[in-house]
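Inverse folding, one chain.
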């Protein structure tokens, strides 16, 4: 949901009950770099109070821009449910097909992902390099995964509560990994080997294995800018340091270390060290809870990374 409170935009997780998603209208003619959006858990491509609002706001701020809000599925109901139950690898394949089939995106585009959509977009950048993502903005995306049960919008949110119970039961159990999207980016710092052996998505996309996929690194290094937005008071992504690729120390699993002190950065599994040295990696902090993006921060993102 997006509402205005004293100049602050509140982009919140959308519950499945009591919310109606609708398809967007016709796109305007593109005169600048197009933008692709990927929504978060419980939301859909086109809800007029969330992604639909963001789409219209971008079109207002960047006259003539073409904005494609990804719908994963045949309709908005499937799009919402697939955020919980469709294998992330399949979602990325479908997103790649949609983007490659869109003639407005063939010369490249900016990508903006919200919450888990920010993580999925990073996976897409590594696996689907054509057409090229120019600037990738992850807003509250759990790049190192989560090790905490998701906070739902209201305790009557049945699907989110079901996801929470399954994660509590055992995220690395085969049938739960196959069934539940959030299990596929569950990262247990006390069971790193079990995570590496059983994660269907995150361990692969983060090059966690002993054999590194050099294509992932090469493709991510092609970005003009990678912008990671972290919410300082986040109560949904646990730990919130994951939004900046921070993670728990291997020598002391109870303490967090920043990206630069992780093996992922120091051994440069993904090219983040290269991007950092080239000043293409940008860590942005927002004072608020999950997806509570103030007007000034949103405008800064648009003017610095999207209006180019």
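Residues assigned per position:
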């Amino acid at each position: 949901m997006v509402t205005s409170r004293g100049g602050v935009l509140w982009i919140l997780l959308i519950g499945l009950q009591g919310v109606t998603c609708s398809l967007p209208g016709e796109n305007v003619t593109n005169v600048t770099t197009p933008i692709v959006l990927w929504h978060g858990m419980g939301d859909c491509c086109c809800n007029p109070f969330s992604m639909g609002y963001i789409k219209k706001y971008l079109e207002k701020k960047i006259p003539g821009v073409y904005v494609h809000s990804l719908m994963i599925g045949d309709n908005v109901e499937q799009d919402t449910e697939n955020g919980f139950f469709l294998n992330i690898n399949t979602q990325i394949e479908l997103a790649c097909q949609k983007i490659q089939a869109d003639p407005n995106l063939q010369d490249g585009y900016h990508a903006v992902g919200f919450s888990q959509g920010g993580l999925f977009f990073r996976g897409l950048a590594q696996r689907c390099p054509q057409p090229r993502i120019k600037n990738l903005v992850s807003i509250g995306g759990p790049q190192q995964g989560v090790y905490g049960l998701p906070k739902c919008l209201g305790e009557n949110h049945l699907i989110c509560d079901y996801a929470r119970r399954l994660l509590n039961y055992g995220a690395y159990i085969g049938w739960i990994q196959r069934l539940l999207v959030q299990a596929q980016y569950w990262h247990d710092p006390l069971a790193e080997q079990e995570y590496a052996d059983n994660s269907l998505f995150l361990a692969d996309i983060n090059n966690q294995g002993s054999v590194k996929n050099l294509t992932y690194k090469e493709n991510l290094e092609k970005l003009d800018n990678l912008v990671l937005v972290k919410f300082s008071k986040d109560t949904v992504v646990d730990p919130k340091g994951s939004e900046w690729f921070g993670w728990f120390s291997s020598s002391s699993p109870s303490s967090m270390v920043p990206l630069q002190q992780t093996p992922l950065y120091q051994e440069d599994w993904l090219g983040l060290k290269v991007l950092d040295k080239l000043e293409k990696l940008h860590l942005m902090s927002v004072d608020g809870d999950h997806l509570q993006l103030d007007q000034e921060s949103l405008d800064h993102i648009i003017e610095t990374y999207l209006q180019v």
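The two ends are 27 Å apart (CA to CA). The mean pLDDT is 89.
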